[in-house]
Amino acid sequence: MTAGSESVLELLPMVFADPGEALARARELLRAAPPPLHASVAHQVIGIWQRDFGDLRLALRHLRRARDLAARAGSAEREADVLATLGVALVHAGRTRQGLAAFDQGVARGTGHTRARVLYRRAYVWWVLGRHREALEDVRRAVPVLRQADDVIWTARALTLRATVHLALGAGLRADADFTAAQALWDTTGQEHDKADAVESRGLAAFRQGDIPAALRLLDEAEERYAKLGTPTFMLNIRRCEVLMAAGLAPEALAEADGAIAELDRLGGQSTRKAELLLVAARAARLAEDPRTAIARAAQAVRLFAGQRRAWWETHARLVLIEARAATGRRSGRLVADAAEVARRLAAFGSPAAPEASLLAGRIALALGRPEEAERHLAVASRSRAGGPPLARVTGWAAQALRARAAGSDRGVLEACRRGLDVLDDHRMTLGASELRARATAQGAELAALAQQAALASGEPRRLLAWSERWRATVLSAPPTRPPADPALLSGLTAFREIAARAEQARQDGHPVPALEREQRRLEREIRSRTLHLRGDAPGGGVRFDAGRLLRRLGDTRLVELAVVDGRVHVLLCGQGRVRRFAAGRLAEAVIEAEHVQAGLRRLAHPGAAARLPLVEAAGRRLEELLLGPAARHLGAGPLVVVPPGSLHRVPWALLPSLRERVVSVSPSASSWLRARETRPPRGGRQVLVRGPGLATGGAEVPELAGRYGAPTVLEGDAAHVSAVLRELDGAGLAHLAAHGAFRADSPLFSSLTMADGPLIVHDFERLARSPYRIILSCCDTARFASVGADELLGLVTALLPLGTAGVVACSAPVNDEAVVPLMLALHKGLGAGLSLAEALRDARAALPGDATHQATGWAFSAFGAA
């Protein structure tokens, strides 16, 4: 090579350091009519750019031209290098046979250092095809030669690839060593795109090791690096979708995968990437309980992988296809055989997904009444409980629980469920974000259901209570990880609040707000992303539930926990030193009836709807029969705590006839009630009264309450801004917040109360060192929750309970603002007399006028906790 040739060859590493600049220089070089050797390099650079970031058809055109020019120049080494690049492009285009043939020619034409680079790229193709052992063989041959040549860039690439292959084979420690060595090499180069790829690969490694917060943080960092280079990120999309699914965020993963597929089609990009995106979209749809979409995506992925001769990938797609078909209720011997064959092939590939396929085959065989066949498959799947990532071990324990149930061993079922849920507890507590902790419980839903079925069959109500508590509202069993004093997060929260306030003002003024709404959504994504990066403080799932301790602490109080087993409500009545069980109605019917009640309360919030009152009361009677059944006659006369499943937390319990004149409080779990019961009020007992803007009554109760309490802290007008409100709420004894509430079903941790400078959101409350001992939220929708995971709740109230709040009064429906004022004044009168929140709320309802609007207002409010 001449000196001029050396300078032209510098364009090749530049395409991964500064892709845009490399593309521009290559095009400029071609305009100068260079000799064949130099033109070959320029066309190869353009081909690489188009292959990875643009139109694959154009990439093939340029790379074939580069190959022909290299041959005309008489450079075997140049020709071998281009053949390797062409081989990668052909495989990505789905022309696997042609691509492998190009590699064979490249290996034959190249020597020494050049051949090592060709072998590295063929190893990459083997990885794309799912042929991991061939990939390891080629990359192991390449690494020593590249190191001997002191080729830092290509050695780092080869080590990164080898680590990725190790991950696919489940060899996490080897992968970690290679990633670490590659990172040290990348730090000495200016290869910005390769550096971004290395960060992305470290994110994948963190995910494979079960560290979801680190994986999300690293993938977000990689995305920022790619964005600076202006390059698409389809492989990153795939990896982030995998992490999102493991975090319980399957709908988001599906949306991201489908968006990436649309963008890839627009660009005319790689067929191989499209197939991989279709596979991840199919998995996400299945986890999002959308089996029809899963079937459509998986079937398309199977066809593409088969045409690309990618057997490893095709087999994984077939697994998702069978899972989705089973989720639609299809059961057949053929489906068992298909799942078993997929399991066999995955095991032969060394895939960590093999136990999932064996578990699936076993499940279907059990449903068909084939216990011997099921035992064969479940025994294989159960081996994964011994080691590996947390979710793989959970798969193994689920298989073991099913084996025990088939063998008629309730004890074996409960032991397997306990061990599996313990694994998930440890995994869940590595997550710092309360949202991720809540959604991660979905992975244990099957184990929890199996345990509840076994506990019910045992005929021991106390055992059923313990297992109902084992996986209910677990997020509330331990305080969340406090967000760090992160300047970027605090800045994002401030910016979000300002934009949200501007958008709301513009809406009130009748102005269009699409630009403000886009910016608000962007800031929401940024805030949420930073909170999802939080790591948990310690392993373990918090204090274990003890039924004896609960019964001792109840005293004269009765606790009713509603357990749902196979769709039926079972009432567990706790008190007087024992637990009794009563069978009630079907959960699905109760949920429908609760929605009817909510619709009725919404109408009664407006004058002139009094004719609806008898209908709402009748619905309350039906709800009582469905939810309490015969237990309603055994509740006694003392205070009552109701612990409903997540799907029933919007029930206005005071509407039920047997509960109307009782002291009733609601708790997400018995454990949460115990925690609240044992929470001590802070010294001093400061009172804080907050009046937000835009209330129909102007928060009329606040001035009168200020006079009653003597010298409370009152924040209103411009003084009621978020930072001041948070400062005063921290450690207060009692807080009354009269402010508009907004529940966000799509993103419950952005549910808010409106302050002078914008929304006070759940993420803000999570920054408190200690939330107020008692909180009264006097406006609409403050007691609404999103039910996620196995049986978790996300919303304003559930954010406060683990932070030191022992009692909350909040509203589950829209209410009449004017009717709220006398209710609140009467409520505070009871608190001043030394009553608990639940006692004061009962008396406040009784003190209201008897018209329909005031009655509906009283029913809409509930007391949560134990203060």
Secondary structure layout:
Layout: H1 3-9, H2 11-14, H3 19-31, H4 36-53, H5 56-73, H6 76-92, H7 96-109, H8 112-128, H9 132-148, H10 152-168, H11 172-186, H12 192-208, H13 212-229, H14 234-246, H15 250-267, H16 271-287, H17 291-307, H18 311-327, H19 333-349, H20 354-367, H21 371-382, H22 390-406, H23 410-428, H24 434-440, H25 445-457, H26 461-470, H27 487-508, H28 514-532, H29 547-554, E1 558-565, E2 568-575, E3 578-586, H30 587-604, H31 613-627, E4 640-643, E5 664-666, H32 670-677, E6 687-691, H33 701-709, E7 713-716, H34 722-729, E8 734-738, E9 741-742, E10 752-755, E11 758-761, H35 762-765, E12 774-777, E13 786-788, E14 792-794, H36 796-800, E15 807-811, H37 817-832, H38 837-847, H39 852-860, E16 861-865
Parallel strand pairs: 1-4, 4-5, 5-16, 6-7, 6-8, 8-12, 12-15
Antiparallel strand pairs: 1-2, 2-3, 9-10, 10-11, 13-14, 15-16
Percentage of residues in helical conformation: 55-70%
- The CATH superfamily of the largest domain turns out to be Tetratricopeptide repeat domain
Derived from helix and strand composition plus strand pairing, the structural class reads alpha/beta
Kindly report how far apart the N and C termini lie: 83 Å
Sequence of strands across the biggest β-sheet: 3-2-1-4-5-16-15-12-8-6-7
Query: Radius of gyration in whole Å, from Cα?
Result: 31 Å
> Helix count, per DSSP?
39
Outline the low-pLDDT stretches: none
Protein name: CHAT domain-containing protein
Organism: Streptomyces mexicanus
Pfam families: CHAT (PF12770)
Domain CHAT: 618-863
